[in-house]
Specification:
The complex is a heterodimer of chains A (436) and B (307).
Chain A (H helix, E strand, L loop, with lengths): L9 E4 L10 H23 L15 H4 L5 H4 L2 H11 L9 H22 L20 H14 L1 H5 L1 H11 L4 H36 L16 H27 L6 H29 L10 H26 L2 H25 L13 H24 L4 E3 H14 L8 H5 L2 H11 L1
Antiparallel strand pairs in A: 1-2
Helix pairs in contact in A: 1-14, 4-5, 4-9, 4-10, 5-6, 5-14, 6-9, 8-9, 9-10, 10-11, 10-13, 11-12, 11-13, 12-13
Chain B lengths: L4 H21 L15 E6 L8 H9 L25 E5 L8 E5 L8 H5 L5 E3 L6 E3 L9 H5 L6 E2 L8 E2 L5 H5 L5 H5 L5 E5 H14 L20 E4 L17 H5 L1 H6 L4 H32 L6
Parallel strand pairs in B: 1-9
Antiparallel strand pairs in B: 1-8, 2-3, 4-5, 6-7
Helix pairs in contact in B: 1-10
Classes of the chains: A mainly alpha (436), B alpha+beta (307).
């Protein structure tokens, strides 16, 4: 081993133990979720007009343009981090995979739920099961079909192993069944994982293709034949930011060690993705001759320069943090670049959309509450999952600490399960059982 | 072990070469060629003849069994734009500098290659292959409102109130055509500013008017002959078409122009399928290595492997 010694090497996913699931923050989220569900019920009866700021000029509001277009880009970690790990075999990235899969699943599930509420006539969604009724060349059909299949099949299946693992530790009588299922799961894994990279590649780019049909109404700084590719690229660096940034945040909140080897590699990949993406974008704008519009004094130029400055600043911070291995600028870099990506994904549909005749859109209060409610649903799901399942990566000693904690400080908690085989290891546990 | 250059290269060649062939051979997709339907019917609106009486607006609502839109002042049927109760509207373009003014009738253009139908996920908006009328089917519409985003003429309108919203657009009174009647708007027009007929006949009539009145019409051109790949509602005007709300879109239709690469890449689903096969090959190998490593770790730490 030529690698320098790293005490914080992330070797194992360990649940966040010793923190209650139901906290004040969690209750606040629950209230928001409940409000969102009640208001969605009201929306189904009253229609979209009374609950939203959508109008004839802006047919799409934040439910589609933010909760789906922006947040599923942040939730593309299973795609971007997954490709770096499984296709390009970046070994370090495997330790971030469970975080990536979980955040992706939650972002997609919440986005799709809200998509069903945003649709005016959702009962007609049943056409989705008749492929011959699809309009194969419609980008929206591609997005709707691809996204639902992706979230319900490959992404959901990829998220099963942590659940099975919990069952394995939960009760030794379940182990043979769990092991049988795991074996079957592993045999289909190559097909499932490949699908989990093909489908997001398709629909994340088709999300950009949606706005191609809007033509001139999208400001020339954004409207380009490369829009699908740029949307995909933005999703890639944003999702790295989301996965690595969330992991760093979790490490801070729950006082866990950060493996700077992994984080540095993620930051390096992200910074190169950002530089490549920004270069392509600038070259495209120059090639189409749209750069002149960036120097006008209007809101479009303003949004463009905010995007550009944020993404370049984020990229430089990330690049520097690779050299210094300093988590502080790295975290800031992730925040800035993801923010830029979010604005970029939001612009063509809303900020840089120029309907004719000129009109304005600002989300209504109910619309914002429902949007926040469905984001809260994802955050609450995340909090429950990391506290009950082994998702967050940690050094090996964290696993033993957890086992100690449950063995000596909380011996009455039976349902956690992880400590049973955890402390002595699986073989030692068997030996112990025999001596009994 | 990271992916080797050789493996990456060979996978790319394996997946990429046939894909390149598919994309270039299938370069001219069937959707890119816009045919004119055999029995294409349409409207010819001559803005220089229109007197702005709005009889067509009321007749349209009556013909389509729509309640009059009195949301403006509760007294008059006076919608300001197309909306969920208004399929047809007369607007006035009146510049302040005294240059010629013009009325503008707006309704669905019934494009030969409609962007709304190209974007509609489940073919709720559909162009009739015979008559070329673009109509909306309630049973297929999921209410995504993509048609309101894609239509370059901003025609389809969504109903914002109620639990069962509908998309409203001119369907050329196809229920009246079936009974041998003309569309509502053309049957009441006192000056003949809007006439109904076969698209070919209307085109000839429009060209005859241009020939007989040189200098009367903007650019001596019929809007809709070739614009946006051709439309079935044709326009003659004294003022620039853009002032009437008809953007200059070029001769290529919006879907053909903007979705060209999207359509080629997804043709026959060949490229995604090839990419999938390539991915499975690479990931199979990755999984083998990853499993091996997990087993090694299990032996070293004595803890159950986490894959």
């Amino acid at each position: 081993m030529s690698e320098p010694l790293n005490d914080n090497r992330w070797e194992r996913a360990v649940p966040v133990y010793g923190f209650p699931v139901i906290t004040r923050f969690f209750l606040a989220l629950a209230v928001l979720i409940a409000m969102a569900f009640v208001l969605s019920g009201y929306r189904e009866l009253a229609g979209l007009g009374p609950v939203s700021g959508m109008n004839d000029a802006f047919g799409w509001g934040i439910w589609k343009t933010f909760n789906v277009m922006v947040l599923t880009a942040l939730g593309s970690g299973a795609f971007a981090v997954g490709i770096s790990a499984w296709v390009f075999r970046r070994k370090h990235m495997f330790s971030l995979m469970r975080m990536a899969l979980l955040t992706s699943f939650l972002a997609y599930a919440c986005g799709l739920l809200l998509l069903g509420i945003d649709a005016g006539r959702p009962w007609n969604f049943y056409w989705i099961v008749f492929p011959w009724k699809w309009n194969m060349h419609s980008p929206l059909a591609e997005v709707a079909i691809c996204m639902s299949i992706y979230a319900m099949l490959p992404l959901a299946i990829e998220n099963v192993p942590p659940v099975l693992e919990r069952l394995w530790y939960f009760d030794s009588r379940l182990r043979p069944t769990v092991e049988k299922i795991e074996k079957r799961l592993h045999s289909v894994f190559p097909w499932v994982i490949s699908l989990a990279y093909l489908l997001p590649g398709m629909h994340q780019s088709s999300l950009g293709a949606l706005m191609l049909l809007a033509g001139e109404r999208v400001h020339p700084l954004w409207q380009t034949p490369w829009l699908p590719f740029l949307y995909l690229g933005a999703a890639m660096f944003m999702s790295f930011g989301c996965v690595a940034g969330t992991t760093m945040l979790c490490c801070l909140v729950w006082k866990r060690a950060m493996d700077m080897d992994v984080l540095t590699e993620a930051a390096e990949i992200t910074s190169w993705l950002i530089f490549g993406w920004q270069a392509l974008r600038i070259v495209d704008i120059l090639y189409r001759g749209a750069i002149g519009t960036a120097f006008r004094f209007d809101r479009f130029a303003g949004v463009f320069w905010i995007e550009t400055l944020l993404v370049v600043a984020g990229g430089i911070l990330l690049y520097q943090s690779v050299r210094s291995r300093d988590p502080q600028p790295m975290f800031l870099g992730y925040i800035l670049s993801s923010l830029a990506g979010m604005i970029y994904r939001f612009s063509p549909t809303t900020l840089a959309f120029r309907p004719n005749p000129e009109a304005l859109y600002f989300p209504a209060t109910i619309e914002i509450v429902v949007s926040l409610g469905f984001i809260s649903l994802g955050v609450a799901g995340f909090l429950v999952a990391v506290k009950r399942l082994a998702i967050l990566p940690a050094p090996l000693n964290a696993w033993y600490d957890m086992a100690n904690y449950f063995r000596f400080r909380r011996p009455y908690i039976r349902w956690t399960g992880y400590f049973q085989g955890g402390y002595f290891g699986s073989d030692a546990h068997k030996a112990e059982a025999k001596s009994d | 072990m990271a992916i080797t250059r050789r493996e990456l290269f060979t996978s790319m060649v394996k997946a990429g070469l046939p894909a390149a062939v598919v994309v270039t051979v299938g370069a001219e997709t069937s959707e890119e060629h816009v045919p004119v339907p055999n029995a294409a019917v349409g409207l010819l609106y001559d803005a220089t003849v229109c007197i702005g009486c709005k009889a067509c607006v009321a007749a349209c609502a009556e013909a389509n069994d729509t309640p009059p839109d009195t949301r403006g002042d509760e007294l008059h049927q006076a919608p300001t734009d197309l909306n969920d109760l208004t399929r047809n509207i007369i607007k006035l373009y009146k510049p302040t500098d005294g240059s010629p003014a013009s009325f503008a009738k707006r309704q669905c253009m019934h494009c030969l290659d409609p962007a709304c139908a190209a974007g509609c996920p489940f073919q709720a908006l559909h162009k009739d292959p015979e008559t070329g009328i673009v109509s909306w089917t309630a049973d297929k519409c999921i209410g995504c409102r993509y048609c309101t985003i894609t239509c370059p003429y901003h025609v389809p309108r969504f109903q914002w109130q109620g639990f069962n919203p509908r998309v409203t657009k001119c369907e050329l009174c196809k229920h009246r055509l079936e009974r041998g009647l003309k569309p509502g708007c053309t049957s009441v027009c006192p000056t003949g500013a809007v006439i109904f007929g076969a698209r070919t006949v209307l085109l000839l009539e429009a060209k005859r008017r241009i020939k007989e009145n040189p200098g009367r019409y903007y650019q001596n051109r019929v809007y809709g002959e070739n614009d946006n790949g051709g439309t079935q509602a044709l326009y003659l005007s004294r003022v620039p078409f853009e002032k009437l709300g008809l953007p200059e879109l070029g001769v290529e239709s919006v879907p053909a122009r903007t979705l060209r690469w999207q359509r080629r890449l997804y043709q026959y689903f060949a490229l995604p399928a090839l990419l999938y096969v390539g991915l499975v090959q690479v990931i199979r190998k990755s999984l083998k290595g990853h499993e091996h490593e997990a087993i090694e770790n299990e032996k070293r730490t004595g803890l159950r492997a986490q894959l």
